[in-house]
Structure formats: structure tokens, C-alpha cells
Protein: SXP/RAL-2 family protein Ani s 5-like cation-binding domain-containing protein
Organism: Caenorhabditis angaria
Amino acid sequence: MLKISGIFLLLIILDTYDCKTSTLSTVSTSTTEVPSSTADLSALIETPIFLQFATDSQRKEYIELESNPNLTLDMKQKAELNWAARCGEPVYSNFMAFVQQKKAQDDEENLRMDQIVSQLSPQAQEADKQVRAISSDMNQTKKEMDTNVQLQLSKLPKKVYYELTFATQ
């Protein structure tokens, strides 16, 4: 077993900031035991079902699309949909189910965030509105979006920044 910090593991698996819902994830700095073999690692990270139906070359192509930092979010979304269509069944239908499930989760999280933000000060509500506007712009790369969100958050008065970030965690 390899030992890596919890921060490193979480950064590998997921982003710590969900730009669509303006939520900051808390990250543990504890040390986590990580399996050293691929078989053990697959138990930690569940492969989406649509990728389980894909061939090795199709999986590789999807991973290249997903990890391409130069694609705007809109371009990436269209390219992935195109990829699934080219793969055919059963990849396509499982990919579409995955996309719909993710959208449902995002919608649910947006409702939760709306309820939380509605209880904040008008300044924090305005800041959240600005961050969500940045996050909903699909004509930027993930890195550009993250940078723009961080820039917007850095402009906030400390009191508003802390109110927004603590409430949305």
C-alpha cells in the first residue's frame, strides 16, 4: 500500500470547487492508505457504466477528451456527446443516462444552494449571483472558469467572502 495525503487523493478524484453550484468542498489533510495495485484502486474509483461497455480505445479517447485542458466546456460537452454517438450502443444509452443523472444531481444541488444563499446578506447573494454567472459560461475552459471564479472571489470584502464560502460548504 502507498501512502498519500487526503488532499492529493481528492484532487486526483474530483475538483474541490464545484463552479456550477459555487460550493467549496472541504478537504481533509489526513493520510489515507491507497491501494498499490490497479485492481485495488478500481475498488476506490467506480468506473461509470458507459465506460465499462466501451472498448479500450474508446475509453482512451474519452479520457483524452475529458482531460483536454484546451477545450471550452461547450466544446467538451459536444465532443463527448459525439464520442458516445460514434461508440453506438450500449455506450450511447448508458452515457445519456449518466448525463441525465449528473444533470439531476446538479439541479438538486442548485436548489439546495438557492435555499442556503437566500438566507445570506444581500452582498453575499450578489456575489453568489456573479460567481454562478461565471460558472454557467460554457465558452471558457475549466481552467479559465476556475481562474475567473477565484478572481471574483478575491475581489469580495473578507466578510462577504467568508459568509459565502462558509455557508456554501
